[in-house]
What does this fold into?
Amino acid sequence: MKRVMTKILNLPGVIVEDSKETAETLILSVRVEKKTGACPRCGRISHRLHQNKGHLVRDLPIGGREVILKVNRRRFKCENCQKPFSETLDFVGNKKSFTYRYAQSVTEQVIHSDVSNVAKNNGLTEEEVWSMVISVAKKVIPINVENLKILGIDEISLVKGQGKIIVVLVDLESHKLLGLVPSRTQSQIEKVMRQWGGKVLSQIEEVSMDMTGNYKSLVQKMCQNAQVTVDND
Ligand SMILES: [Zn+2]
It folds into this structure.
């Protein structure tokens, strides 16, 4: 059973030790396969377990049920620094109550819908949804822009929070997310697009914006071969 649940969870390096279920929720107690932790100060690998610290993390739903992981973020003691540290986990950020992949999935839903609907559909508050979007925006998204030809620029916002806006860059052919910019300033958007390189920027044929056309002049400057369309509906 444990092995089956571990396979179903499909989180690399994570083993399910126990599971409990209710009609709506699956609670999985998990442990990390790795027996050591790397000190964030000096990088030394430590085997000396100092303390166990459990916390709850929300993950992708399984079979229509919400999934809560009981995670043990261990504290090790570094023999070099003589100080304890919390291990870094690959699937959940420090002090975060959701896995990276769950935040990614929620963010993709927001891009195709809006914050308040996604909150409702996932049983989350709007603030929780927003904090996931922010955390994804802060993480560097590994992307392949090699074949980018049609770029979409959109904005998502938290209705309740005045001025909370994120700019979304999407490949409109593959529907892949290319970037999230947690600020409306042109220079920040320019910075993200510059990282794609001159070859990609010059091969973009079409840019579509679903708003007031705030970034029209920026895009015309950066993508010289692109036709820019602004959709005002
Ligand atoms: Zn150390």
About this structure: The longest strand covers residues 54-62. The radius of gyration is 21 Å. The pocket of zinc ion is lined by residues 39, 41-42, 44, 78, 80-81 (CB under 6 Å).
